[in-house]
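TICKET: design request
STATUS: open
ATTACHED STRUCTURE:
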């Protein structure tokens, strides 16, 4: 796939030791295959920044899981992303794409490994398994239900 895209003159860049290739394909956000990341070339701005972090998170997952990554992450991710039933459920019920364990964990891995913060509201507010990526820690309570002091 990489060789085919390279032969078509696709742009690419290195991102934290992973190779990102920008491809021209409709209805496509991005996909990661080990250290090779493919992103829609029409993605830009904050969305591009966040897609890079997210897809790099899948790269980190593949390093952690090795060959199990295909079954533990890739297959569930493809099913969650492309099955019409899940697409409809997410749209009708307002369920975040990042609610699935494989996608939420990818965000956490990507943010941890790159030390970068997400910029788009979708990822900031619902990027951690459908919950905020950066929760308000000062609002947490201790074990007895008392508000923590700073």
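STATUS: resolved
RESOLUTION: sequence designed for all positions
ATTACHED SEQUENCE:
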């Amino acid at each position: 796939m990489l060789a085919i895209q390279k032969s078509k003159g696709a742009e690419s860049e290195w991102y934290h030791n992973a190779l990102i290739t920008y491809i021209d394909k409709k209805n496509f956000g991005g996909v990661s295959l080990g250290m090779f990341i493919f992103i829609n070339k029409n993605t830009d701005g904050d969305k591009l920044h966040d897609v890079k972090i997210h897809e790099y998170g899948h790269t980190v997952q593949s390093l952690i899981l090795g060959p199990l990554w295909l079954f533990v992450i890739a297959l569930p991710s493809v099913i969650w992303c492309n099955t019409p039933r899940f697409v409809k459920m997410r749209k009708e019920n307002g369920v975040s794409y990042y609610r699935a364990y494989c996608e939420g964990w990818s965000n956490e891995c990507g943010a941890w490994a790159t030390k970068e913060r997400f910029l788009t509201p979708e990822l900031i507010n619902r990027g951690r398994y459908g919950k905020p990526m950066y929760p308000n820690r000062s609002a947490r309570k201790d074990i007895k239900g008392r508000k923590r002091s700073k």
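CLOSING REMARK: The two ends are 51 Å apart (CA to CA). Residues 45-65 form the longest helix (21 residues).
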